[in-house]
Structures are given as structure tokens and as C-alpha cells.
Sequence to fold (308 residues):
Amino acid sequence: MLKKILLLILVIFLISGCGRFSSDTGPISDVKIHTGTSALEIEFLKDNPPNEVFEDQIFKAAVLLKNRGAFDITNGILLIGLEEDYTELLYERYNQIDLELEGKSKYNPIGEEKIEEFVLRAKDVGLQTQEHESSIYITSCYKYQTELSEAVCIDTDIHNVKPIEKACEVKDISLNSQGAPVAITKIEETISPNEAGDIIVPQFTIYIQNKGRGEVIKASEIADVCSSKPLTSEDINKLKIEAYLSGIPLECKPYELKLQNKQEKVICSLKEGVKKDEPTFTTLLSVILDYGYTQTISKRVTIKKIVY
Fold:
């Protein structure tokens, strides 16, 4: 009898313990990470900075940072910009902060959050006025990545001459987001025979769009964006693409593309092709987009003259 009671207690313990590792939306394994079009979200904390300050007053500009995408931010930059005639950074060497925030994962489905702050001092507004509005800017610059894996059909019988039923059908794929600001929105597949007629060549037209609130920049130039160094038009809206079919690299043209009106398309092909004597099959298409991303928020602060 005692053994039965102990066994019952053990079963109840195990059931209740398992419940702790799941949520109302289902078990950890069901958490969808690669959704949404956000990456780093930035917002000023309430009254940091305040709406109004007085001359010579020390105050803070504090921001809440949230990585709402599915990619970790490492070696990013958070930079403050001021109207230096009216506001100054109290500790000048701290005008920028290193950005390190983990992205969404099955163990943390909302991504990492943290608070960063800058200490400022209001300067004199001058003799001819009682107050002055001054803007405070916070800019972020970081590398990011979009990842996509989709099942696609490789039809080796494009003329329907084989006497067997096909395992799948070639069709376009419409998409919305992958947990990153730059999204793959559509994939069109075409299959063509080679000149000898013994091989078919799968080709994918991949449509890409910047759906985030910031701007795409060349990944190698993120340090220049968060500095006084000038950028050229060639550095803006630039990203790189890699694509694989069953782990085999595809040839993408162009490999480095420039978004026009926040969107563009690229064609990726399996040049070596697939033998026609193979049966039609389903396999995995993987796409990786590498880019830099930048965005800026601002707030106006009224600096008031001290009246004695």
C-alpha cells in the first residue's frame, strides 16, 4: 500500500513539473520564433529625459531596448546626438554604448530587454530668451540577419511523361515575415531542362522587402553610420544573400543587391541541376540575408531660464 501511495505522489510530481515548462500557448517546442518584422525596438523611459529642465540642470536620457527579432545583436552601437549649444554629455567618453542583446528563442520567446542611459546637462539658453527647445537623438546601428527555410518541390518530370504519380507540385510561396525587419515575401519557382535534356535546373526568384521602421545599410559600414563619417549611396540599402537547396549552394544574381523603394528581387539557381531520371521530390530551400540596420528616435526638451 505504501508503495502505491509513493508511486502516486511521484506521478503527480512529474505531471506538475512538466507543466512548468509549457505556457498557455503550448509547449516550448511550439513557440514560433521566426515571425514578425521587428529587430531592435527603442523607446525613451517616462520622464527620461523630462519634458522640461532648467539651465545647468543635470538629467538623464534613458531608453528601453528590446530585441524583438530572431537574431542576436552583437557588437552593435547605441549613440546619442545632441544640440551641443544647449545640451552637453556630462561624461563625454560615454557618448556611445556597445549593443549586445539576444534575440528571440524557444526559451525566451520575446527576446532580451535592457535599459541604457546617458547623463546630460542643460546649458544656458542665452540672454535674449526665456526658454529653448533642444532635441535629443538616440541612434542604433547593428548587424542583423534574416533566415528562411521552406519546403519546395523539385519536379523532374516537367512534361508529365513518367507513368508514376508525382510526390508534390511546383507552386509559388507567399510569405509575410521571418522574425527580422527585412522579410522574404515571395518565392517563385521555375524548372527548365538543360541543352542536353538530361538534367532539369531549378530556379527561384526571391522577393525581398524592408518592412521595419529603420534603414538597411551595408553590414561592414555600421560603425561609420554611428559616427561622423560620411556614407555614400552605395552603402545604403545594401544586403547580401545566400541560398541553399538541400544544403547545396545556389548561384544568386546579384549576390549583393540594393533595395529600391525598400524592395528588390534576386534569382538563385542550382546550376549543376538534377538528373531527370530521379523521381519528383520535396526538399528544403534555405535563404540567409545579411545586412546592417539603423534607426533613430528623438525627443524635444524645453530648457528654461532660471529666474531669480
